[in-house]
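[agent] plan:
  1. take the single chain provided in the ticket
  2. run structure prediction with default settings
  3. attach structure tokens to the ticket
  4. add a short note for the reviewer (M.T.)
[agent] executing step 1
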Amino acid sequence: MSLESIKAIVEKQAENISPLGATFKFVLDDHPIFIDGTGDNNIVSDEDKDADCVIITSAETLQKMKDGDLNPMMAVMSGKVKIKGDMGLAMKLQSLIG
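[agent] step 2 finished; step 3 output follows
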């Protein structure tokens, strides 16, 4: 799955859920996807700004989690996914990649 298609999925999901109340950033293969959920809508961009919660992984690992082939908790425990910032906020991101 390409970074463009992942960003498109995140954008579509972000439009369909309530504002997240925080800022998030996925860093997939060194490419940022920034989600600003502090306003009336969730806004997705390619900006590389500071965020309340940052999730660093590869597009391949993200796809495996999305497909159910990799448990997200195991991905974190094995170092395939790194979370910086507010861990509680990371739980909200399930709705963006589902």
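[agent] step 4 note for reviewer: The helical segments are 3-15, 59-67, 72-77, 87-90, 94-97.
[agent] ticket updated
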